[in-house]
Amino acid sequence: MKKGRLFGLMLIVILVAGLFAGCSSAQKAEGGAANNDDKTFVVGLDDSFPPMGFRDDKNEIVGFDVDLAKEVGKRMGMAVVLQPINWDTKELELDSGNIDVIWNGLTITDERKTAMDFTTPYLENDQVIVVKKDSPIKTKADLAGKNIGLQKGSSAYDAFVADPISKETAAMNEYPENVSALSDLGIGRIDAVIVDSVVARYYIASNNADYVILDESLSPELYGVGIKKGNTELQTKIQDALNAMIADGTAAQISTKWFGEDIIYKP
Q: 57-98, pLDDT tens digit by residue?
């Protein structure tokens, strides 16, 4: 083979290798693969779950949990990558290594403890019933014969199906995220929404929605950060950073920014 032809082939190989390397780097930056190095902290979240994590009018992901995660990442010396995921398959995303943590209003349950490890709780919450102000539904018992909306794969789903009232409702409509359910409530497609109280209160206030939250709730719960089972090193780093943020008041400041008061859980 002539030298000129050999040189040309070598140049093509170099260019192709460079192209694949560039693609790999771009995929890591955009997709945030968690299996890269200890410099990147990939946070899996539902990007339509205000005020915990959602997109603002600039299409940037913001929220209470987002601010907490960014501060934790900063204190761990790691670059935070926010990775939107399908909430219904969140356990698979974590177990496969696509993300380092699930951090977006994740309720600590005994069932989830078998699939992942958790930090200690940082926020208290409960599942509430949201209806329109002029709704005839005044109590949980009034849900009988009504159409209910909730997020698929959520704690609202678990709380609802565990309650005897779920057997008396006309239908349970599952949505990919809470905003769609709350929107459908407004136009009358469903009669009530089961949702996290922090989400309901934020949605009603920020949208000036003509909704009310019933006094009865379905179940109290605690939020924690979900970490891949057995990853004690990362679990300890996150916990240490959270503890320091609670101690020095940073967590309270973030809470006040989003909720108007300090609602950080302190057992």
A: 999 999 999 999 999 999 999 999 999 999 889 999 999 999
Q: What's the CA angle centered on 177, arms 33 and 186, to 5 degrees?
A: 160
What are the helix (H) ranges across 123-196? 155-162, 178-186
10 contacts: CB under 8 Å, gap ≥ 6? none
195: tokens are 């949702």
CA 218, CA 162: separation in Å to the nearest integer? 9
- Whole-prediction pTM value? 0.73
CB 229 within 8 A of CB 112: no
Distances (CA, A) of 4 to 7, 10, 17, 55: 5, 10, 20, 54
Please give the Cα distance from 80 to 67 (Å, whole number).
11
Gap between the Cα atoms of 234 and 69, Å rounded: 13
Nearest to 51 by CA among 242, 205, 218: 205
In this structure, what token pair is assigned to residue 184?
A: 């459908």
SS3 state at 103: coil
Residues 241-264 have pLDDT tens digits of 999 999 999 999 999 999 888 999
The DSSP-derived string for 211-264 is EEEEEEEEEEEEE--EEETT-HHHHHHHHHHHHHHHHHTHHHHHHHHHHSS--B
